Every structure is written in structure tokens, then in C-alpha cells.
Amino acid sequence: MILKSQLPPNRKLLAVQLENPQPNNKPTGKSKSIWLLIPLVAVLAVVARAMMETERVESQKVACITIERRLSTALLLYGQDHDGCLPMGDYSLGSNKWRTWVDLLHSYLAQDEKLFCPLLPMTDVKESTHGYPMPSSYTLNERFFGKFSTGPYPIDNLEIPAQTAMIVEGGPFKSKPAVGAILYGDLYTQPERHNTPHDGKLNVAAADGHVVTLKPPAKIIDHDVLYGRLAGTIFNWNAGYPNGHTAGPPHE
Fold it and tell me: Could you tell me the residue ranges of all domains in the chain?
């Protein structure tokens, strides 16, 4: 038997290594799989958060559409009870009290129904002219009262209601968030009055009651303020045509 002390130096080192093997630092197949899973889990977490945010934004848009559809239905029911006429924007009750078109719809809506887009909170926002609390984040098309006559324009006389804006999202003024408007005039000459909270889009209820989500164009040329196109297939009035004259191209 050869003792370790009798071995040559190089053999002694080999003998020591054999008696005291070094730990194997190379990852096993199982540990390799774990390390590969870590970046995959991180990517899935990012995707999940993005999907949750998309679902949240979409649910808020749907909630807004639902509210606007209820308002449009209430307006049409009001019109049926008032010879086809929609209410005026507001009027004074005296003693600095005002009644708005939204107030006149309460008998057609659920009690204490919220009439604000979830993305357009109106807490402490006042009406820009008279200073009363804003009853809603939605605006009524001002052309239904006092534009074509001294009083209301009967909605039944409207020739193309499906392409006529009736309710347009408003909200706090962009430049003055403490005030808002209850009437819709024009999206392009009064852009500060109308927010586009749904990823650059806004919801609009047409005069036949249906609601669409529209993305306003970035640039408008030769826009007709009274009749012109709001966005998509919806116009400020009567699909872009003057009352009783629907021949030829519409006023853009």
C-alpha cells in the first residue's frame, strides 16, 4: 500500500482533490428552468397590468355611454310629453336659483341617478354664466331651442335625427376647471368646453337616441359652425343640411 506522503507532488494534489471534491456550481436542469421563468413571469405581469388598465378604461367608457343613453331616452320621452319639443338649457326661478334641462328630466330618470362621466368628476364645478352647481357632465345641443325660431324646434321636424348631435360630452373647461357649460355650441370653435376623456374620444348621443364614441379630427378646414360635421357621421345639425333642404352635399 502506497501512502499519500509517498506520492509525487502532482499525485498528492490529485489525491487531495479526489478526497475533497469541490461543489459543482453549474446549475442543474431544474435551476435553469427557474431562472428562465423569472423574466417570463415579469413579462406576464406587465401584460396583465396592461390588460387590467385597458379593461378599466373600457368599463369607464361603457359606463359613460350607459349614462348618456339614459339621458337621451329621458329627453325623447320629455319630447313626447311636450309636443316633440326638448327643454331649453336653463331658466331663472328668481332669488339666484336656476332650473336646467337636466333638472326637467328627473321624472324620467332613476332617483338620485349619477349623471356624470366617471372620468369627468364635476365636484365644485359651477356653470360658467350663472354660477350654479353643474348638474351633469353632458351638454345639450343649443340648436334645439332659440336657434331656428324664438322657441323650441320640434325634434319631430328634424329630417335626419340619426346624424344630429343631441347630447355631447362636456365636463370642466380645460383652461378653467372650476367652471363648465350645460349647452353644446360647437366642438371646434369652443374646444375648451368639451373633453375627450376616452383615449382622445368622446361620447355623443344622436337625436334618435343612439350613442356613439367619436374621435374628433386633428384639423378642420372650412368648418360650418351651425350645421357642420362634429365627427364621424354626426353633425351639429340635420346631417349637415339646413332644415328642409337635404339635396346636394352637406355643410361640413
Answer: 39-240
